[in-house]
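Dear colleague,

As promised, here are the two records you asked about, laid out in our usual form so they can be pasted straight into your sheet.

NAME FIELD: protein one
SEQUENCE, THEN STRUCTURE:
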Amino acid sequence: MESIRELLDAKPRRGLVATAPDATVREATILMNDHGIGSLLVIVNRRLVGIFTERDVLRRIVADGRSPDATCVGEVMTTDVVCCCPDTDVEEVADLMRRRRVRHVPVVDADDEVRGLVSIGDINARRFASCETVLHQMEEYLYRRA
């Protein structure tokens, strides 16, 4: 079984993108757009206090008719953040995402410091690569090219 640590190690290093709770929603969404991402970690004193996602924008800003310039991230972020540790199995995190209906899971170590972020896209890409490998091995076996 593959761990989240292994998945993170295989990902290209981009660095975590975060914001503060007092940033405006407009500032946060510009940051998300600039980085081509769907969520921001909300961090205070190196500790995760929430996550701000595209879903938060739709449900708590657009649907409620709130101003993105007059609303702070801390007012509308998700505070019940689903997290995992680096040693968690990838399939366990995939199941957690499915059950909790989330697309981003911060990876937090024993000291409560954020070590990475796993998206459903990361997990799907890993699953696809694994299937490709197995398929290639089966083709090699069947056609005796190995």
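NAME FIELD: protein two
SEQUENCE, THEN STRUCTURE:
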Amino acid sequence: MINMKLRYFKNTAIYSLALWTILVGPAYAYMDPGTGSLLLQGLLGGIAGAAVFIRIYWHKLISWFGWIKSSDSKKD
């Protein structure tokens, strides 16, 4: 029953994508120089955000992977 629904969904998605590809016309658009700048800013912002995230949660990430013991388990 579930397999039939999944097959129906996959077939519908494939046929819809094929139909959309056939019926779409040309856009006649171009990318101006500001677009490259915007893409570069987005990429650099994403890298900076990931670096800050890793910097803040570094010890939690390492203890989650099991490379070090968490500080709660230490008995001083």
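A couple of things worth noting about protein two: Helices lie at 2-23, 33-56, 58-65. The chain has a mean pLDDT of 83.

Best,
R.
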